[in-house]
Design goal:
alpha/beta; Rossmann fold; eight-stranded mixed sheet; globular; hydrolase activity; GDXG_lipolytic_enzyme; hydrolase
Amino acid sequence: MVQQVSVEKNIVYGKTETEYLTADLYRPSSSEEDLPILVLIHGGAFKTGSKEMYMEWGSMLAQEGYFVMAINYRLATPNYPTYPGILEDMEQAMNWLVFHANERKIDVEKIGLIGDSAGAYIAAFFALKYQPFSYQIRSVIGVYGVYDLVEECVNPVIERENNMFELFLGLSFDKNERAFKEASPIHYIEDAVKSPTFDTSFYLIWGGQDRVVNPKQSLRFYEKLKEANVEVKISEIDDKGHFWFNLLPGIEGGGVNNYPNNTLYPEIVSFLNQYVRIAWSGNFSKRQIHALAKMENLTITK
């Protein structure tokens, strides 16, 4: 039986120095238990895009029994770089969820992040860089993301007339390579896994024919996660490039029922159910529990 979905548009979850930040909320109309949470983060080269790109995913995932928050965040202009402020926007979204957890009947210890392109970068970076105690990010699904800014600037799949990463950081890549490295999620894996609260699994998805972001971005990120013993799943869509995961005005496809999303949807739901829905309640990390169990020769039941 398909659940009815309740939608709230343009809820204010935070603000920048110039504007309020808004989100669209999707949830099953009736639920007895606190709902696990999904935060959807749109792409758009850090300078465009909107939460409305995820309206179909929001409704579909709410029907699966999730509280879904599709967010807008600050966008870069030539006079307004948005790094690292964009991570502050994510932090405000997380704090909004914590503040409203009881009234909204949501479980902030069961949060998953989903992002495409720039949104995948934001999701991965935030999950690796921030290790809070008041909520738990259990999974990240990153679709054709950029995870190493230096590598993408040095070996782009296309020559860019305008470098989106320079706009994002407000710096030219020339002579500022260190800043671009420090803004790259791939370099935060090692520190993240040392944290006793880190408990995030990853699902990386990309198109083998991508001519916007080098497909090797996802492959290298996958390899680094595996080296650090982080749980990670991958799906490469051999015959697709960029911009097929969600809706863009005037562009055909991008719906949940369009290829390849229709083949990915059950994989995504299965991944979320495994790593978000049935995650332990409380600020526990599987990594730490397993380490303690090994030390004391204790039995793991889950």
